[in-house]
């Protein structure tokens, strides 16, 4: 599948070439990445350890946090390390691996957000049938299908990337490897490949966003028949989900649903959905969710108490 290439490595230009700004990038994104990993791992451990967070919503939140951690890890560590490197070199194989990981976990996040919307729709619009429809076996099957769908999507992306011949230059005007910056370096007409990219990644982003927005509009409309307390709880949950959807899908749609043109803000937009959103998700889901906060308090209270007894 791989074309004959005279290029065996690429040089990432990163976010900036200014030494002072590179040091700032190292500090800022180190904080972001550590916060992302710690925040999402905290949610993962809390959900796994707490008996009160056994509902399907938290089952899906567990996998969203897992996808967030892996998605951020596919780009953030290299950006952080490269910010202190004089020459930001990435080998061809490492570049292809990054393309695969970026799309695998990014697509998984999209599918999990859809499953969370389905869960909220069934819980609010069909409460009596909720325990039957959203059984643990059904949720497990849905997650397995999400992983399979994400894998198929990332395989499609890596096939497109491997078909690109590179004969120089090897300067990628980005901080990570993705199909858009790679298309600019390919020694061939990339018009058809770009169409495939838009019809794949672009279609997934756009259609998923539309489906999610319609589902939440239906959910919010149905809340008019609920009690004041039930309406408040459902609104809090749905608002968190809607914020996450807008923060993630806005930049994705901007990047993947347009002709192969370059804008100055492209790299910063990519930073927002690959690093910024995974950092914000734990904050959104914990600060706006009383059940998660209470479960975390109980979990760490038990751990601290057990440690003090030792």
Automatic annotation (TrEMBL):
Record's protein name: Olfactory receptor
GO cellular component: plasma membrane
Record localization: Cell membrane; Membrane
Origin organism lineage: Eukaryota, Metazoa, Chordata, Craniata, Vertebrata
Chief subcellular location: membrane
Entry keyword set: Cell membrane, G-protein coupled receptor, Membrane, Olfaction, Receptor, Sensory transduction, Transducer, Transmembrane, Transmembrane helix
Domain G-protein coupled receptors family 1 profile, residue spans: 39-285
Transmembrane parts of this sequence: 24-45, 57-80, 100-118, 138-162, 201-223, 235-256, 268-287
Entry-linked PANTHER family: OLFACTORY RECEPTOR
Pfam families tied to this protein: 7tm_4
Membrane topology: Multi-pass membrane protein
Family: Belongs to the G-protein coupled receptor 1 family.
Function: Putative odorant or sperm cell receptor.
One MF term in the entry's GO annotations: olfactory receptor activity
